[in-house]
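Chapter summary example.
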Amino acid sequence: MRTLIVDDEYLALNLLETFISKTPGLELVAKTKSPIEALEILEREQVDLLFLDIQMPELTGNKLLKSLHNPPQVVFTTAYSDYAIEAFELNVLDYLLKPFSFERFLQAVNKAKITHRQKLILEHSPTVNPDKSAEFITIKVDGKIVKLKIEEIFFVEGLKEYVRLVCQSGRYVTFERMKNLEAMLPDHLFIRVHKSYIVAHNHVRALNGNRLEINEYLIPVSRSKREEVVEKIFGSRKG
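The structure predicted for these 239 residues follows.
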């Protein structure tokens, strides 16, 4: 992943550069103290992962992020905890509170690698329409190729050797691996809440204990996934 560092402190720049040099799969495109220069770099270079400070004199990191039409994956790096809620509202991948360790840095990077890999699979998957990858997927059902609008998918359920997709237009069973379906579906719209379930954020009505309500369906949430579900679907770190 091509990586950019934006931070107005030399120590932070150098530390992140060192961490990146130790991490396989990362390529440092540039590092800069200036958010204005960062905007220029982002215009001319492909950047997959952005480590971004928040408190900077010319332009704050959150304002820089809001100005980007098609932002890369972003990890906030800051000495202030006050911006955590806004970070999640901006769909920031992770929030590193200074000073952070190499281990904590790697946790953020591993999140980015998973998301980046899913994006590449989605872009190159033969079962996704290349012109309308954000609108529908195609699956094989009873020997037929069926086109399903992504916005109409309520959830995906794993059933041993096959999966069931429950949609506004009906239920569809296909011989497909759960992880392949997870890779096809946009990760900003869907989340794996259980080893056997993937749900669409927008169709979730409520979280009742460890079950999500989607119309008349109750979807179990794994204990290990509950905090992530609350953050991504309900926009809060609590609940």
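To summarize the output: The CA atoms of residues 115 and 187 lie 8 Å apart.
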